[in-house]
Amino acid sequence: MKFSFSSSSQSWHGLTHVCVIFCAAFFWWASPPWSWLSSPPRVAEQTTAMAEAVTTLSEEAIDEALQRAAATALDGRDGTIIVIDPQTGRVRAAVNSQLAFGEAFPPGSTIKPFTMLAALRDRIINSDSSVLCREPYQHAGFRIRCSHTPLKPPFNPTEALAHSCNYFFARIGERLDARTFDTTLSDYGFGARTGASVDREAAGKLPVSPWRTSYALGEAKGNLLVTPAQLITAYAALFNGGHLYTLQLSAPRDFQTRQRTQLGISDEHRRMLLDGMLGAVVYGSAARAGLNMQSLGIFGKTGTATARDDYRSHGWFIGFAADENALTNTERNKESEAGTDNEVDVKTDVEQTVRPAAMRLGVLVFLKRGQGVLSAEAARHVFEEYARTHVRRENAPTLTTHDSPVKANALPASSLPQSPGASSTSMASTSTSVRVRLAREGVTLALPLEDYMFGVLAAEASTEDESEALEAQAIVSRTYALKNLRRHQSEGYDFCNQTHCQRYLAVKNEGTRPEFYTTLRRTIADTRGEILRDTNGRVADVYFSTSCGGMTANVSTLWGRSASPPSYLRGARDEHCTTMPHHSWTDTIPAARLLKALQSDTRTDVGATLANVVVIKRDATGRAETLALEGTRRRVVRGWDFKIIVGRTLGWNVLKSTRFEARRAGDDFVFRGSGFGHGLGLCQSGAHVMARRGATKRQILAQYFPGTRISGGINELTQLNGRWRVEALTELESSDSSSNWPRSDSPDSSPRAVNISYHATTGARHTLSSEHFVISFGIKSATRREVEMALSVLEDVRADVLRRLVAASVRVTAQMKVEEKIEVYVHDSTGDFVGAMGEPPWVAASVRGRRIRSQPFSTLLRRGILATTLRHEYVHVVINALSHNRTPRWLSEGLAAHVAGEGQTLARFRTNGGMSVDEIERGLVAPQSAPEMRTLYAAAYRHVRDLIQGKGEAHVWRVVVGCHGPSGKGSRERLKTALPIAA
Predict the structure, then answer these.
(1) pLDDT digits over 131-141, tens only?
(2) Distance between CA atoms of residues 412 and 282, nearest Å
(3) Based on the number of CB atoms within 10 Å of its own CB, is 149 exposed (0-12), middle (13-18) or buried (19 or more)?
(4) What confidence tens digit (pLDDT) does each residue in 371-396 have?
(5) Are strands 851-854 and 822-826 parallel, antiparallel or unpaired?
(6) Which of 175, 192, 429, 723 is 20 to 30 A (C-alpha) from 668?
(7) Cα(16)–Cα(630) distance, rounded to whole angstroms?
């Protein structure tokens, strides 16, 4: 039985900590100056007012305009707005200046840039650091959630700043030296009066000993307080060259600056802060504030913090504007990897920095009983007024954050724009579109298939200069897209822009690499509509990676798929990539670091020590198929899973493939291997060498996909509009795609293809089946896509459970019927499920024999528990088969929750003291409410977790098998002996 609960995100223990926006705006002067109106506006307010011709205004007139805009923006609310010249400290406009200087408040997320700077100076983090957000953060009595949308990839520092990730900065706080933090804040003027000529100025407050992690997040319960004046001068010093000024309200003529001190900050640190704050506006915490304007490039940091005297929040905003030539671009190469199919890319990015002398305007907005996004919206009015008096631009340049390229005048996230790189001719040639989700930006693009291919090649083939290799890549990428169309249909789009699908780059300015992008356009045109088909005429199942290391992979042994994979995915020798950079590599990993990585996943957690890593099975392609991890506990894990678990913690450039040998050398483990990525299908390095030696695209594809053929069969599909998305795809394949794997609940799970058979039944019910499962569903209970997703999840958990049984030395006999096909029956409604099963409505699914009965998949998807429900129920089927239905309820539920990966969720719920297993057992017979069921599940999981930590998971599985003996008192005594906790 799977309890269908959802954890509340409102349990914050009185903390409301979202973020605050620090924003800086850049101006780009146009030529001719005021001809920018041909571009669509970014913000609704930027319409006729900004279209007016502007004569040159004096500084005094601009000050007056800014003062009016600030007063209008504050609109009588309790708070303050300060507008300054960051180059001098001159106050250009101020509303409620007494509050700005005379009162201090908790800074909340506005302190994070200084926390990040302190951590960089202390070398706790660097540009390559990454942390996977596992919010909520909880440690030593401090608990806080993150306000950003859950994102699976680990955050680097700039991304964490952009998303204002509380978990990331709390982890920094655990390691940060209090003296470094205090020194950094003191250097930038916190804890001291600014020296302004006002009647009463507050000094604020710096935190006192002992150090608390919460201080790093600006949540200090009154121990860390800042004034608005301190905050804007400190931020100005980050970007104006280190000048910490005293604010002065004065006319511009004969103004004399008062510098308090000169601070030093490295270009690298300042660039990282800039990248994070630019990312906040473009795709992160400030994306909803409408700051990504037509004529201003804005970078920022948003947030909300709890006031001292009550639980009402207040919001901050700080921002700056810079003049022409504000951006300085530097080229860089970046290698990245994600743990799915097309893992590795090498791309050229543009890093952004701003010249200190270019800073021209600073704006701070503080709202009592407000939120950061409201403060940001208020400040936007001030920037718009400044833009109206200064800037006209026809086409804003491309803004590229440290990792995320975004157009300065991109449309709001609520719109569905065409491809930024789409030409008018390509748009006219076809009305068919696919939908691609830009994860960081939070934008879904609707664009023609061939324009989508342009963006894919711009990302996946960014370093390729051989035309035949480019054409081969185009055909493979197009085939992959068609094969996997609709994989994100339930989420409202077709593809993501990450390696789970194919990377996609929204090219905003083809002038940055004109020759390359012209070549890509020609490649797309020359291969238009071409795909690969197998010997049966179906769309081929294709993959690609950076380097196969001398032999392509076998999909069956790599990911544990069907024992009869397509002949073109069984591995083949490749002599061509042996001369390329990734053919051989050596990684030396300290044992302590490797142990920490392995402890992050239950599949590889060997306990407190790691003695050895042994490849116990290697496939015919030379890849480590199975490894034994020997430590306090012994773990047997698939080679690919080992690579992903290590890469997720230590970085994707560590253990570049599974084609390696491992040995222990003192306190280190040395891995020597070849290849980069999974090695399936097209080897991009080998294709490049083949093309350089004169091979054609057909010869390249024949090398990596033997037996397939190039077909132009999708040209006609571009004229079918909406029908192409459903019927036309069926016309291409005799059955639906065999590799439409869903997104896994884990960011690093290997993709699994499922061979699906469709059988229409009488009435309104249908059946889809895979190798080991059959699902019966109605048109009201599930979509075909949802059923395909469910079959993939079930095949995954089946393979996982069988690996666990093998590791536990459990012999699966024919009498247990583990190999027989299992039926899943999806009810049309919750009422139908309750009436048929006699279960309460909060139960998601139930097992009867070898049949799983569930509520509608759409209901479970909406609650976010479909995958965990299916995994949980399948484990029950196996437990029942192993024990002949004699496993105690508490053990069965606890073990099912453990294998299904529900531990982190269940651990959030408190139980009633030390509930015994007998109490849990009695309660599970007939729980009376959803809260009671939740408590019982959490208690059962904790008991099983403690058993696994003490005796190992293998022992628990063997106990389950031992439960099949004769029932009665003797059986109960045997269980007590095997599991002392049950006594």
Answers:
(1) 888 888 998 88
(2) 10
(3) exposed
(4) 888 888 888 889 888 888 764 333 33
(5) parallel
(6) 175
(7) 45
At which residue do the structure tokens 């031992």 appear?
Answer: 962
Measured from the Cβ of residue 222, the count of other Cβ atoms closer than 10 Å reads 12
DSSP characters for 713-758?
Answer: TTTGGGGSGGGGGTHHHHHH-SSS-TT-PPPPSSTTPPP-----EE
Query: What is the rounded distance in angstroms from the CA atom of residue 814 to the CA atom of residue 178?
Result: 63
Assess whether the previous peptide bond of 841 is cis (omega < 30° from 0).
no
SS (H, E, C) 464-528: CCCHHHHHHHHHHHHHHHHHCCCCCHHHCCCEECCCCCCCCCCCCCHHHCHHHHHHHHHHHHHCC
Rounded CA-CA distance 648/653 in Å is: 10
Contacts of 809 (CB under 8 A, 6+ apart): 954, 958
Kindly state the tokens that stand for 131: 């942390």
CA distance 258 to 246: 6
DSSP 8-class letter at 374 = H
Instruction: Tell me if 964 sits within 8 A of 883, measured CB to CB.
Output: yes
- CA distance to 7, 487, 595, per residue, from 491 (Å): 21, 9, 37
Q: What's the Cα-to-Cα distance from 94 to each of 70, 225, 227, 249, 260, rounded to whole Å? A: 7, 21, 14, 9, 21
Cα–Cα distance list, 867 to 275, 297, 522, 743, 875 (Å) = 36, 41, 43, 10, 13
Is the pTM of the predicted complex or chain greater than 0.85?
no
Residue with tokens 């001159």: 90
Determine the 3-state secondary structure of 801 from DSSP: helix
Query: In the structure encoding, which two tokens stand for residue 585, read together?
Result: 């590599």
The phi-psi region of residue 384 (left if phi > 0; otherwise alpha if psi is between -120 and 50; otherwise beta) is alpha
**How many H helices and E strands in the chain?**
30, 36
- Please say whether the beta carbons of 792 and 768 come within 8 A: no
Distance separating alpha carbons of residues 372 and 313, to the nearest angstrom: 9
Helix (H) or strand (E) holding 366, with range, is strand 359-367
Q: Walk me through the domains of the chain, giving residue ranges and CATH numbers.
A: 11-331+343-411 (3.40.710.10), 424-550+682-728 (no CATH), 585-673 (no CATH), 754-880 (3.40.30.160), 886-983 (no CATH)
Residues 6+ apart with CB under 8 A from 673: 549, 584, 585, 586, 587, 655, 656, 657, 658, 659, 660, 661
For 70, phi and psi rounded to 5 degrees? -65, -45
For residue 863, give every residue at least 6 positions away whose Cβ sits within 8 Å of its Cβ, in sequence order, or none.
4, 6, 844
| Residue in the block written with tokens 């940091």 | 301
Q: CA-to-CA distance for 550 and 761, rounded, in angstroms?
A: 48
783-825 per-position pLDDT tens digit:
888 888 899 889 888 888 888 888 888 876 655 555 678 999 9
Q: How far are the Cα atoms of 144, 149, 213 from residue 166, in angstroms, in the given order?
A: 7, 12, 11
Angle, to 10 degrees, between the axis of helix 684-692 and the axis of helix 467-483?
140
Q: With CA atoms as reference, report the closest residue to 921 among 854, 860, 872, 979.
A: 979
pLDDT band for 87, please (50, 70, 90 cuts): very high
CA angle 862, 868, 870 (to 5 degrees): 95
Q: Say if strands 313-322 and 668-673 run parallel, antiparallel, or are unpaired.
A: unpaired
**Do 171 and 214 form a contact (C-beta atoms < 8 A)?**
no
Residue with tokens 């009436």: 835
Pick the range with the lowest mean pLDDT from 16-25, 453-462, 486-495, 816-825. 16-25
Q: How many CA atoms lie within 13 A of 955 on its CB side?
A: 16
Measured CA to CA, the distance from residue 181 to residue 910 in angstroms comes to 35
Is the Cβ–Cβ distance between 438 and 407 less than 8 Å? no
